[in-house]
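Appendix B. Chain record.
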Amino acid sequence: MNEIVQFCLEKGLLLDKELLNLFSENSDLESIKLIINKFKHFTNKRVITKNIFTENKDSINNLLSGLSQENQKKLEKLKIKLGLTIKISREENFVAEPVNNNLIEKKVFEENNGIREEKLKNEIITKINNFDDVKIIGNYPALSKKLEVKDFVTYFKNRFSTLKNILQEHSELDKLVSIGKMSGNRQIISIIGIVSNKRITKNKNILLEVEDLTGKLKVLINKDKKELYKKAEEIPLDSVIGFKGAGNKEILFVNEIIFPESRLAFRKKGIVDENVLFIGDIHVGSKFFMEDNFLKFINYLNGNVPGTEDEIKKIKYLFILGDLVAGVGIHPGQERELTIANVEDQYIHAAKLLNKIRKDIKIIISPGNHDAVRIMEPQPILDEKYAWSLYEIKNVLLIGNPSIINIGAKEGFSGFNILNYHGYSYHYYSGNISRLIVEKAVHKPEIIMEYLLKFRHLAPTHSSTLYFPSEEDPFIIRDIPDIFVSGHTHKSAVSYYNNVLIVSSSSWESLTPFQEKMGNEPDFCKVPLFNLKTRAVKILDFE
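Structure tokens predicted for this chain:
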């Protein structure tokens, strides 16, 4: 640490404490010095913070790409902690995918009434060779520690700061001031704040309590401003919003509401004719699992359906968006709905099915609320203790929930960034936001997904999902994805929102008594197919 500090002083630089600690954990001091030196010339900044790295990911990745392969390998752990791009290769898998047990150790398990010993490390190293064109852009570690009030305070402070930086780019927010610096005189101003309270006054106006790091302010939206009022009705608690209007340090009368918004300038097209498929909510182990239909799907993937040869050979990626298995004890009385009552056996059966799929298709699996991982989000990759059978399949890659994956990158083309989120928070918004209730969004997940893209957050309201309050909010949509995909609702949908492709997957489990009781109206065995070159979308139906 002292050597790094001395080097920075010689260069006229200062490092923040967090970044200094990260650098000090790395034994390759020469590479660290080279990074600092390059970074100085790139940014012309005298104070280097972790936030500067995360806000300039692409440029920093380019800087690091100039290092030797040997040095780049030494710096992989540092890159992950800085949130930089990780390209999946032989050795990177052990860093990018946290597991509960050490993959290097031997695992003994029971199969076909016998005992055999497996070296999982060698098998995983071999399979990762198949994922050279898949990059994990954002895969949040599953932290575990005793939670304190200060953890939630830090979580929301950092959320506010990140989304504030996004909102400050909106030109509508001129004359921007902090709440604590507002005067007692009436003035035209803009503020950015997190919504801590929302109510309807006796005059039917909407009154918000908004706060930033400097203070609190009452914000009023008049019922006579019809369009503005409709916009205000959609505001969820704990979201970060921009407001413009007239007021003083007591109250702001709003004329404009500015959401963070997710918007792409254009819809990019790949340079290679490839297809990607999206499925989810397979629920292997359930009595209602539509296994015959799923086998038809596998038969299709393997090129055994006449007339589909040209389409099939272009399929290179298959995303499974959570709930691969039915799980055990997920809801009251579930044991009566299971044919496989042991979650490890459920994964074994799922692995047998997935192992039938031809090996040139990359299968990328994220967890859901039925899977054998913690329900608290972000969820880690599927637990090796229960899902070891999936670790053995060479063309399977396990990722967390939520996560961002890049596919299809070629020389001269950056690829498609795909935001994966199972969708556990969706039912909260479909049942608590008036417009979504009226539009019956519980049966239209694309409407909920559009709604969340508007706020650049997958679960803005504190109670909308179970979450771990890490320093970096994993639900913030920092970089706008090309494709946003989800499961959980069991509804099939494809749409666009501001050039972002939205995909919701259907279910491979027929209507269960529990779902019927909850009023669900699922779709079955529908598979969206997206062509990376033409952007054509086709819905395959195996029902």
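Further analysis of this model is presented in Appendix C.
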